[in-house]
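[Q] Does anyone have a clean structure-token version of this?
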Amino acid sequence: MARYSPEHKGRSRQRLLTAAAGLFRQHGYAGIGINDLCAAAGLTRGAFYGHFGSKAALFAAVIGGAHDFVRRLRNRPGATTRELSQQAAGVACDYLAPKNRKAVISGCSLAALAIDTSRADAGSQQAYARAVRAVIDEMRRGQHGPSTDIQSARAAIALCVGGLLINNACGADPEGKKVAKAAQREVTRLLTHAG
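[A] Here you go.
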């Protein structure tokens, strides 16, 4: 039996995580099976079980993986408190922008998998909570008042994920866009402490 290098194993694991993230976001946890996951990653069931003990373990790894929302917040180039606050609001507003709805919902596990994660095992829920805390921590970077930072950031992520989900669920109905626009205004106010 041939042994694979650690690099090969790492690439196989990453292919599986990438394929699973897209499939879970598109079809939900229950809408995809291990055979589908393996086929999308170009791997065998044996390779799957070499990396993960179950579909639930893979789901938890996807939830605990890198999140574009966090990455965008971490990559803010601002140096001052004001710049960081304005840039955080800009990232959040882009996240909520009705024109970006389909791209964000298909690329953001925080939004697309929120309901699935609420029904998942404790490991997946803990991974989700860590991802939420990472967004909150990044939103707080650059805020003014330490006593209100965490509350503003918590409210902002709730508005972002909730606004995106409602906008997506409304489909073509204009009420979804109105909810997203209202969430954008409130997130900007919360993160920049304007008005």
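[Q] Thanks! Anything notable?
[A] The first helix runs from residue 6 to 27.
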